[in-house]
Specification:
- The protein is mostly helical.
- The chain has a domain of 92 residues.
- The chain has 7 helices and no strands.
- α3 packs antiparallel against α4.
């Protein structure tokens, strides 16, 4: 019985590790490197200032419907991307995922600018709080912290090795 418990514990640990790795890839690589800069850029475009003004005059039901449509389309694109990639259409999958990132950044911009209206729906506020709570639990878990620390060490190691290799090439071939 104890052996079965140990095996189950190790399987759950591996599942948790796998899910946290996916979260880190999505959060650190995709969001931080691609979507967040797009989000920042969208914030300062003149067109989006006009759109923000337009949205601020709309009722909360319109805002909710528009936000959910954009978010659902973005998530469906995210689901379709690996399917398209597995069929061999890699460039189409990359283009679709890039478009998904644009839509997701737009949805997060909209959430940021219209948060008051969106959170006026009790069920939306409840779900929003649950998502934030889950995110905080993941980020405060020991396994997440260990993986992030190791990833930072690997990143520093790779930067050092890249500089050494670059210096070697410069010294070897361009003296």
């Amino acid at each position: 019985m104890k052996t079965l418990k140990n095996i189950l514990h190790k399987l759950l640990y591996l599942l948790q590790l796998f899910l946290i790795l996916i979260y880190i890839v999505l959060e650190e690589l995709i969001w931080e490197q691609f979507a967040k800069p797009i989000f920042r850029y969208l914030k300062y475009l003149q067109l989006f200032a006009k759109l923000e003004h337009f949205l601020s005059r709309q009722n909360r039901y319109f805002i909710l419907a528009f936000f959910l449509i954009i978010l659902v389309i973005a998530e469906l694109m995210g689901i379709a991307t690996p399917i398209i990639a597995l069929q061999g259409y890699i460039i189409a999958a990359i283009a679709l995922y890039a478009l998904k990132l644009l839509l997701a950044a737009f949805a997060f911009w909209m959430l940021n600018t219209q948060k008051g209206k969106l959170l006026s729906f009790k069920w939306f506020a409840y779900l929003y709080e649950k998502v934030i709570t889950i995110k905080e639990k993941i980020e405060n878990s020991p396994i997440y912290k260990a993986i992030v620390l190791r990833a930072k060490r690997v990143k520093i190691f790779l930067k050092i090795k890249y500089r050494e290799f670059k210096n070697y090439l410069l010294n070897r071939f361009w003296r």
